[in-house]
């Protein structure tokens, strides 16, 4: 497995691979790799990538001033070992300094149609940072496709739109959420949770399961279910941030819970903000 720190060197290597006819997959991550990330590498392998490039970069521009940029778990050695074992062929560890010039001034911004609600509304500037770094990673790795996780549903939807609207010549693959046996969605931020918070956090996947079951029986008005879900999360000890049901493509709120609708949840367990979602 090759290791790159220098964006220019990665870019030259990736361009040479494309020229040689290799199929490149990009798996963008912020590191602290877990089963969820490894499933993205597995999806890249399954799709027949010759080169699987995993980027590991805690991107400062997608964190708000009061968020966990400084505490975000970082373990390059463990991440490299996991990538190698999972079959990645290259890993990229850039630094904020070599990714962003001191006078960096051009950003990739979604106009709010997709990023104005849900996490975008609560984390101002977050998707500007995500889109910018992902666009940079596309330019550095020349991928035929890039794999994202469904856990960040809004992110995957925005990236897909960015690829369409900016004519990036690549395919976006979205891999299913990987859960712990308890049902908790795998996340690098789960490392912050105490035992009690972990227990409370199970309310997220339980609520989604319940809503899925109800929807299988037929469409239902969303408002009452939204309120019930909010209360159930709060009762489990979480501080609910949002409970939303949206159209799977446009992220527009819906009034009826029905098959194909996506329910997205965000809640704090202590100081840790967790998100989860399910397609009904
Ligand atoms: O999903 C993440 O881990 C990040 O938002 C991403 C896509 C790697 C961009 O920093």
Structure description:
This protein is 39% helix and 20% strand. It has two domains: 174 residues, HUPs (Rossmann fold), CATH 3.40.50; 87 residues, 2-Layer Sandwich (Pantoate--beta-alanine Ligase, Chain: A,domain 2), CATH 3.30.1300. The chain starts with a strand and ends with a strand. It has a six-stranded parallel beta sheet with strand order 1-4-3-2-5-6, sandwiched between helices. It is of the alpha/beta class and 280 residues long. The protein contains nine helices and eleven strands. Pantoate (PAF) binds next to strand 2 and helix 6.
What is the assembly state of the chains in this entry? single chain
List the domain count as a whole number.
2
Instruction: Indicate the percent of residues in helices.
Output: 25-40%
Number of DSSP helical runs = 9
The overall pLDDT, averaged over residues, is 98
Within the largest sheet, what's the order of strands? 1-4-3-2-5-6
Bound molecules: pantoate
Largest sheet: 6 strands, parallel
Range of strand content: 15-25%
CATH topology of the largest domain: Rossmann fold
Order of helices and strands: EHEHEHEHHHEHEHEHEEEE
The strand count comes to 11
Q: Could you state the CATH homologous superfamily of the largest domain?
A: HUPs
Rg (CA only): 19 Å
Q: Which class of secondary structure composition applies to the elements?
A: alpha/beta
Shape: globular
Q: What is the end-to-end distance?
A: 39 Å
Q: Unreliable stretches, pLDDT < 50, 5 or more residues?
A: none
Q: Architecture of the largest domain, according to CATH?
A: 3-Layer(aba) Sandwich
- At the first level of CATH, the class of the largest domain is Alpha Beta
């Amino acid at each position: 497995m090759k290791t790159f720190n220098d964006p220019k060197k990665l870019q030259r290597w990736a361009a040479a691979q494309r020229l040689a006819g290799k199929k490149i997959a990009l798996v963008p991550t912020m590191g602290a790799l877990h089963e969820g990330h490894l499933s993205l590498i597995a999806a890249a392998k399954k799709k027949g990538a010759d080169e699987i490039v995993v980027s590991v970069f805690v991107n400062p521009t997608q964190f708000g001033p009061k968020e966990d940029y400084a505490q975000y778990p970082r373990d390059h050695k463990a991440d490299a070992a996991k990538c190698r074992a999972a079959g990645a062929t290259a890993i990229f560890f850039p630094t904020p300094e070599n990714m962003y010039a001191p006078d960096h001034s051009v950003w990739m911004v979604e106009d709010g149609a997709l990023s104005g609600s849900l996490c975008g509304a609560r984390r101002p500037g977050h998707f500007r940072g995500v889109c910018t770094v992902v666009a940079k990673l596309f330019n550095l790795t020349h991928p035929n496709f890039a794999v994202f996780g469904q856990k960040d549903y809004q992110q995957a939807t925005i990236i897909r739109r960015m690829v369409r609207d900016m004519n990036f010549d690549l395919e976006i693959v979205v891999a299913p959420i990987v859960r712990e046996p308890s049902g908790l969605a795998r996340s690098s931020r789960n490392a912050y949770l105490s035992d009690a918070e972990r227990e409370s956090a199970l309310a997220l996947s339980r609520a989604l399961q319940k809503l899925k079951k109800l929807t299988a029986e037929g469409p239902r008005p969303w408002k009452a279910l939204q309120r019930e879900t909010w209360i159930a999360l709060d009762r489990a000890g979480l501080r609910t941030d949002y409970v939303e049901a949206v159209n799977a493509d446009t992220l527009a709120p819906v009034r009826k819970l029905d098959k194909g609708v996506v329910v997205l949840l965000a809640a704090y367990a202590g100081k840790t903000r967790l998100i989860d979602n399910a397609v009904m």
